[in-house]
Amino acid sequence: MENTPETNNTSSTSPGKRLRASAARPQLPEQDALAPDQVHVWVRVVDVLPVLDKTDTGPCGQSPCSAEVLVEKVLAYGAAFTANLAQGQQVRVHFPMTLEAVAGRPAIKVGDRLDALLSQTAAPEGTNYRMHGFALLP
After folding, report:
1. Closest CA to 41 of 68, 85, 15, 75
2. Which of 96, 100, 92, 88 is nearest to 128 (CA)?
3. Which of 3, 4, 79, 99 is deepest in the core (most CB within 10 A)?
4. Where is this region: Disordered (predicted)?
5. Where do the H-state alpha helices sit in 9-136?
């Protein structure tokens, strides 16, 4: 069998010199995959909207579930995300599990900064985006 880069995991740099494939490429840090319909952003809560959905028998029928947020930074777009968010843009976001403290998560209040995953949607109360996950930023 002939000794080729395909058979011995090396690549040729010049006649007589070989470089191992693993040495040719630096290791990239692991990154979580972003769902195709999501955007990864940093936002700041500017207003908690007190609108309650009285027809909802779940958490949004008892506590506010929407907020106005200011986009501080767009970190990544999913491949199928069609909206165009920009730094400084203010949008309405629906939080399916309310803005109240739930299951060990602190309540979300005006001024809080969030590292968030959003999707574009026609959610309740005319909101434009749905919160899929977040962490509080300092």
Report:
1. 75
2. 92
3. 99
4. 1-33
5. 21-24
- Cα separation of 90 and 85, whole Å? 9
Lowest-confidence pick of 41-50, 54-63, 110-119, 128-137: 54-63
Buried b or exposed e, range 82-104, using 16+ CB within 10 angstroms: eeebeeeeebbbbbeebbbeeee
Q: Which two tokens stand for residue 38?
A: 């999501």
Tell me the CB-side half-sphere exposure of residue 8, using CA atoms within 13 A. Answer: 11
* Two tokens, residue 117: 């995953």
Q: Which domains does the chain have, with CATH numbers?
A: 38-137 (2.40.50)
Contact 49, 66 (CB under 8 A): yes
How big is the CA angle at 47 (ends 66 and 102), to the nearest 5 degrees? Answer: 50
d(CA 95, CA 122): 13
What lies within 8 Å, CB to CB, of 52 at 6+ separation is 60, 61, 62, 63, 64
Q: Residue 1 forms beta bridges with which residues? A: none
